Amino acid sequence: MASDSDSKTRQVVTRFAPSPTGYLHIGGARTALFNWLYARHHGGRALLRIEDTDRKRSTPDAIEKIIDGLDWLGLDFDEAPVFQSDRAERHAEVAHKLLEAGHAYKCFATPEELEDMRAEQRANKQPMRYDRRWRDRDESEAPDGAPFVIRLKVPTEGAATIQDAVQGEVTVNNAEIDDYVLLRADGTPTYMLAVVVDDHDMGVTHIIRGDDHLNNAFRQLPIIRAMDTIEGGWPDPVYAHVPLIHGSDGAKMSKRHGAVGVEAYRDEEGVLPEALFNYLLRLGWGHGDREEITKAEAIELFDLDGVGKGPARFDIKKLQHLNGHYIREADDARLAEIVAARIGPKADVALLTEAMPVLKTRAKSIVELADGAAFLFASRPLEMTEKAAKLLDDDARHRLAGLSKMLHVQNDWTIEALEATTKSYAEQLELGLGKLAQPMRAALTGTTTSPGIFDVLVLLGKEESLLRIDAQVSPTGTEKNE
């Protein structure tokens, strides 16, 4: 067994090992992030393993979504993914080595016998645990050709202790762990065996995962330690069990708290990858009062001693605030491409790029950006929101008609010139600028919210702006000006 000094000199190797039975869960994404950052911080390697042994639930689509989500977050792994389903022969090989060395045994108990055993334990309010009935029996007592499973011979005396990098020292009595199955009757490996073998063969030194797997560590250690006595070179990994993410009500994060998949935050919530990266980093890990941390800074700062022992609470408002920050920091051309993909074929990337400085000032999501940009590509006659339609009463239309005459002869179509003209007209009418600006906004965008009204005029251009205003002044305005 390797000493603590040995583990410190080994190159750090971490792994993220999702089961592809659905989307990339937000909790899984954070686990992947912590593994990736720890490896990068220590100059090690971060690996990806797809635990696809549940063939009924593991689908190519789910695998693709998980890998796509990791790529989107910017988590690049150092080798091609390992697929657990490809390694069944290797898993079985280790099980038979354990059997031959006396660390495992054949169990011939039938399903009916095991169910009777569990029923008796339930009736007596005992722990539901295999009673080791075949642990010391001779195989000759079983009927010829009877099916069997291979069970691990777990130590029954003493206790196992883990120096967990997050949870601290944790001890479990060996008597609390039953002799669980390594190989099923059909020769297929169980999850518990496959994980240990794969971690060893991949050279994993640090297992960073959710604290719901803490009990599994005590079930997996006996395999590691038995194999180390058989062939050597099976050191204990360093464990770091990270508290789970909870919703705002303190319960484990689930669909009732809102979106739980990374793709939903990307596609439905309109979150930028750097914002989610930053938010997940701060969800259970901290460095002073720092909130906004770049990827490069995260690699420099991240270590396991910054991970808290208590569950982190997911706060969508904090994520939205952070997303707004990264939207304002983002390159305008990049944002334009993202928004154009959401709007569709009618989107003009060049126009969106020009508009982005004024569109992104208050937006907290790509969804808001796309909604805010929709007026640029709206077809006439504009579809009006209920609030916008109320602004266009007879008085407002009359004022817009007068303004339209002034704008038709306006040659300098700049923000400063348009503002001066509109203010001058408002003063003639002895009105505040808002009395003109709000009906103008409704006529130009079909809504009551938009960038500054003079920004809107410039972005739409003179011809389109006047066509939209005149369409509201007169039902035939659009036709006359076209």
From TrEMBL:
It comes from Erythrobacter aureus. It is an enzyme of class 6 (ligase). The gene is gltX. Monomer. Keywords: Aminoacyl-tRNA synthetase, ATP-binding, Cytoplasm, Ligase, Nucleotide-binding, Protein biosynthesis. Residues 343-471 form the Aminoacyl-tRNA synthetase class I anticodon-binding domain. GO terms for cellular component: cytosol. Residues 11-320 form the Glutamyl/glutaminyl-tRNA synthetase class Ib catalytic domain. Belongs to the class-I aminoacyl-tRNA synthetase family. Glutamate--tRNA ligase type 1 subfamily. The keyword Ligase applies. PANTHER family: GLUTAMATE--TRNA LIGASE, GLUTAMATE--TRNA LIGASE, MITOCHONDRIAL-RELATED. This is Glutamate--tRNA ligase.
